[in-house]
Structures are given as structure tokens and as C-alpha cells.
Design the sequence.
């Protein structure tokens, strides 16, 4: 067996061990969050493999967001972060040539429903956070990166207000995927003022706990954002 074959076998084995460990972490109470996993030697003995295989398996789990590796201390179970999902979805999108139109359609489906739920469930704390967000977003001295961050935060707050934890995760990932897209919409003439106006309209509907108005306002905002991005793209083409 040559070196390449050996490495391939070890890689496949480490992935299999990672899958077994993941199943134990996710589907049992054996290793709660923050719990230290057994040592490499103990895991190697448990699964009948070498320590290098275990070491590689732990790296796979780290990439999946399930463990943190601390030098000299070992591996500790962690909750997967939304960024882990973002990385996986981003790779899938690039490899399958998924376009912005698919994203904006998904955005409409998720965010409109988030606004609908938020109109009923939103709390005073989140309403206040949205007010502060719009005030900060209105600062004309913001850098493009700062403005996009506030825009993303606005939509994530509404997702949080929906009261649906899974919807909140999906929208957080979706908004992260749309960061560049959303940034283009405010770069056209009047784009910033348009976004401010539409954010305020969404907020007013949520303050009134008016489901129909919240849905309409979010639909209009997403449609306007799409138009602004198309204008931006057309202007870039003409240059």
C-alpha cells in the first residue's frame, strides 16, 4: 500500500469515527455541552483505532462545530454555531451554482413569515432594539460594512421576535449568505433613505401588532431591495 492509499484509508476511518462520536454526542446524554471528552488514548482503545485516527476525527468534529480543542486540556463538547451551518450551505450553493434569485425567493418565504409571527409575539425589548437599530442605521457617516451589519441585525431581530427558534437560525444563516447582496441595495442613489423608510414601516406594523401590515411591509421591503440590487448591477454593467 502506497502513502496515498494509507492516507485515504486513515481519512475514511477518522470520518467514520467522527460520525460515531457525533451520534453519541447528539443522541445521548453521555457528553453534555461543556463536558470533556475522554482522552485520545481512551477513545483509541474504545474504538480500536490509533491515536492519530482519533486526532483526525476530533478535527472533523471541530469543523462540524461540535467540539473545541484546547491545547494540553483535550476536547470539549460545544453547541454548533450558526456559522457552521452557514459554511456548509455556502459550500453547497457554490458547488451547485445556486443563484441570488433562489436566495431572494427563500428570503421572502422565511422573512415574511417571521414578520407575520413577530407581529403577534414581539416583546417591548425587541421593539426598542429595532428603534435603536433604525436610529443607528440612519447615520449617514456609516461605512458600508457598518451599515450592512446593522441591516442584518434588523432582520435578525425580527426573526428572534418570531418566537420560532428554528426560523431564527435559518434567517440568521440566510442573512449571512445575503450580506454582499444586501450591501449592494443601499449603494444606489436613494438606497439608504429607501431602506430607512421601509424599516420604519415594518417597525410601525410590529408596534401596532398588525399582522397584515407587517407581512405587506416586509414583502414590499424585500421587493424594493431586489429592485435596488438590479439597478446596482445595471449601473456596474454600464461602467
Sequence:
Amino acid at each position: 500500500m502506497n502513502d496515498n492509499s494509507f492516507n485515504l484509508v486513515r481519512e475514511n476511518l477518522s470520518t467514520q469515527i467522527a460520525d460515531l462520536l457525533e451520534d453519541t454526542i447528539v443522541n445521548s446524554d453521555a457528553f453534555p455541552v461543556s463536558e470533556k471528552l475522554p482522552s485520545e488514548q481512551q477513545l483509541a482503545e474504545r474504538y480500536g483505532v490509533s491515536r492519530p485516527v482519533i486526532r483526525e476525527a476530533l478535527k472533523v468534529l471541530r469543523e462540524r462545530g461540535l467540539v473545541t480543542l484546547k491545547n494540553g486540556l483535550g476536547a470539549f463538547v460545544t453547541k454548533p454555531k450558526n456559522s457552521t451551518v452557514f459554511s456548509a450551505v455556502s459550500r453547497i450553493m457554490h458547488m451547485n451554482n445556486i443563484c441570488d434569485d433562489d436566495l431572494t425567493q427563500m428570503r421572502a418565504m422565511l422573512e415574511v413569515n417571521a414578520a407575520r409571527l413577530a407581529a403577534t409575539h414581539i416583546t417591548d425589548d425587541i421593539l426598542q432594539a429595532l428603534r435603536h437599530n433604525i436610529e443607528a442605521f440612519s447615520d449617514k457617516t456609516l461605512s458600508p460594512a457598518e451599515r450592512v451589519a446593522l441591516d442584518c441585525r434588523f432582520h435578525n431581530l425580527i426573526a428572534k421576535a418570531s418566537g420560532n427558534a428554528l426560523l431564527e437560525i435559518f434567517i440568521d444563516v440566510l442573512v449571512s449568505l445575503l450580506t454582499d447582496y444586501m450591501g449592494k441595495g443601499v449603494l444606489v442613489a436613494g438606497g439608504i433613505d429607501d431602506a430607512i423608510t421601509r424599516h420604519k414601516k415594518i417597525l410601525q406594523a410590529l408596534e401596532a401588532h398588525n399582522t397584515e401590515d407587517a407581512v405587506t411591509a416586509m414583502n414590499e421591503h424585500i421587493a424594493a431591495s431586489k429592485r435596488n440590487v438590479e439597478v446596482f448591477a445595471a449601473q456596474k454593467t454600464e461602467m
